[in-house]
């Protein structure tokens, strides 16, 4: 019995004796699952009173509220369900509470949460808590980590949070909060990470955000914000990740953005940004992800993009910019590229002899005025709305692409289209090369205009459409690091 006890209940700071009293320093319930082996009725009391009631093992027992000396309570990812007992928010000595990743755990935050004067960490992400955040949360003067991501919280962000000047992590993302971003957040100068994305926040981004010079991560995307990206963002020189996508922001990209030389993820897409892309942005050569698509940006992408040697994901879709593919193809770490709705150039010097080995798994070139001469590979493929002509190659991945990948190209013919190729095309169509003995990624198979194929094809074949349709969400999951 006691071996079973230790497998699910780790007592920190004291050894288990014949009874467990209020002298418990910490209890960790870090379980793979709270299976029925956890029989609360069979175990000694966690306080001075015995456990008298029989409780379903996946429900947090109210009797934990009697453990008045409890300091650390970890119930992360235990498959808990039902209502979280509010009596736990009254434990006077509680220093850390983590019940994250229990999707069926419901509850709310009572005003009494403000009495947890010893609390330093509160993590309740990926649960199903509802209601509003009480203003009493501003009484938790020792709090350094507040993570309430992905719940059903509504209402305002309480202004009292400005009192939590020791916060290093504040995560209120993916809720249903409806209010402006409080300007008083500028007082939280110890913040390393601020996540407010995926809410219904309104109004402009307060300039005081520029005071948070210790920030590593700033996520404000997918809100209903207004106004420009402020020049004060240039003060945030420690930023690694900046997510402002899907937020209705307007105006130009400020030149001060070039000060953020430690950035590896920049998401400004799906806004209403205008004007030329600031030349200073090309100073951020550590970028791994650049998402500027779906704005009204103008101007060319300069040759200095070749310096972005770590870039893996690049999205300039629907920006009306001019892109020389020669420069893009020198980014040999690039795996995701979408340039739809721009002016893409494939110059004659783009040849098998000059191109480096690339590993693109997703390429989107929709709605460009293209006349392709050279290219290959790919698992996801879309060249619709161009001026391509000639037969579509047969075999391998080309047999898997949907008809919509080739539509609105009057000169194309082939099995994938209603327009079939005549004998003159068929006799000149080169055979499908099923092996690449040279190691080159480029097999120029499609006469004059279309894409052939070589190695490195399969990676994006089954996921390409998902990546294109939900790239912002997917990339955020891939490149963001959250505390749970």
From TrEMBL:
Keywords: Cell membrane, Glycoprotein, Leucine-rich repeat, Membrane, Receptor, Repeat, Signal, Transmembrane, Transmembrane helix. The keyword Signal applies. It is a single-pass type I membrane protein. Gene3D superfamilies: Ribonuclease Inhibitor. Its main location: membrane. InterPro entries: Leu-rich_rpt, LRR_dom_sf, LRR_R13L4/SHOC2-like. It is found in: Cell membrane. It comes from the Eukaryota. GO terms for cellular component: plasma membrane. It holds the Pfam family LRR_14. The chain crosses the membrane at residues 444-468. Residues 135-243 form the Disease resistance R13L4/SHOC-2-like LRR domain. The keyword Acetylation does not apply. Belongs to the RLP family. PANTHER family: RECEPTOR LIKE PROTEIN 30-LIKE (PTHR27004:SF447), RECEPTOR-LIKE PROTEIN 12 ISOFORM X1 (PTHR27004). This is Disease resistance R13L4/SHOC-2-like LRR domain-containing protein. It comes from Morella rubra.
């Amino acid at each position: 019995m006691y071996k079973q006890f230790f497998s699910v209940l780790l007592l920190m700071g004291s050894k288990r004796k014949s009874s467990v009293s209020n002298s418990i320093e910490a209890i960790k319930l870090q379980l793979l699952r709270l299976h029925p082996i956890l029989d609360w009725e069979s175990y000694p009391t966690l306080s001075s009173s015995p456990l008298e009631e029989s409780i379903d093992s996946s429900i947090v027992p109210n009797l934990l509220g009697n453990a008045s000396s409890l300091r650390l309570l970890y119930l992360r990812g235990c498959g808990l369900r039902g209502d979280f007992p509010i009596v736990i928010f009254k434990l006077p000595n509680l220093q850390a509470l983590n019940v994250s990743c229990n999707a069926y755990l419901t509850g709310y935050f009572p005003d009494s949460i403000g009495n947890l004067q010893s609390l330093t960490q509160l993590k309740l992400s990926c649960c199903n808590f509802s209601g509003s955040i009480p203003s009493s949360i501003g009484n938790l003067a020792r709090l350094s980590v507040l993570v309430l991501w992905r719940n059903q919280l509504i209402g305002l962000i309480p202004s009292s949070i400005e009192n939590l000047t020791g916060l290093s992590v504040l995560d209120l993302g993916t809720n249903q909060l409806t209010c402006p971003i409080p300007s008083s957040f500028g007082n939280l100068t110890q913040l390393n990470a601020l996540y407010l994305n995926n809410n219904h926040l309104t109004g402009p981004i307060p300039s005081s955000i520029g005071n948070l010079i210790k920030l590593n991560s700033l996520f404000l995307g997918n809100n209903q914000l207004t106004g420009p990206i402020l020049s004060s963002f240039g003060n945030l020189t420690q930023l690694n990740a900046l997510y402002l996508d899907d937020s209705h922001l307007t105006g130009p990209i400020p030149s001060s953005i070039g000060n953020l030389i430690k950035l590896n993820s920049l998401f400004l897409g799906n806004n209403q940004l205008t004007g030329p892309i600031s030349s200073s942005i090309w100073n951020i050569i550590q970028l791994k992800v650049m998402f500027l698509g779906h704005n009204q940006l103008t101007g060319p992408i300069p040759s200095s993009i070749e310096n972005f040697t770590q870039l893996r994901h690049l999205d300039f879709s629907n920006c009306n910019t001019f892109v020389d593919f020669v420069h893009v193809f020198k980014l040999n770490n690039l795996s995701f590229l979408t340039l739809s709705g721009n002016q893409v150039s494939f110059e004659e010097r783009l040849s098998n002899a000059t191109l480096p080995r690339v590993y693109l798994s997703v390429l989107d070139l929709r709605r460009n005025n293209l006349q392709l001469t050279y290219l290959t590979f790919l698992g996801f493929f879309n060249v619709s709305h161009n001026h391509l002509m000639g037969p579509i190659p047969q075999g391998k991945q080309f047999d898997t692409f949907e008809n919509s990948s080739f539509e609105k190209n009057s000169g194309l013919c082939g099995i994938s289209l209603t327009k079939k190729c005549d004998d003159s095309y068929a006799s000149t169509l080169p055979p499908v090369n099923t092996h690449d003995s040279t190691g080159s990624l480029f097999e120029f198979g499609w006469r004059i205009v279309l894409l052939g194929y070589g190695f490195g094809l399969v990676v994006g074949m089954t996921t390409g459409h998902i990546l294109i349709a939900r790239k912002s969400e997917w990339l955020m999951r891939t490149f963001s690091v959250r505390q749970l």
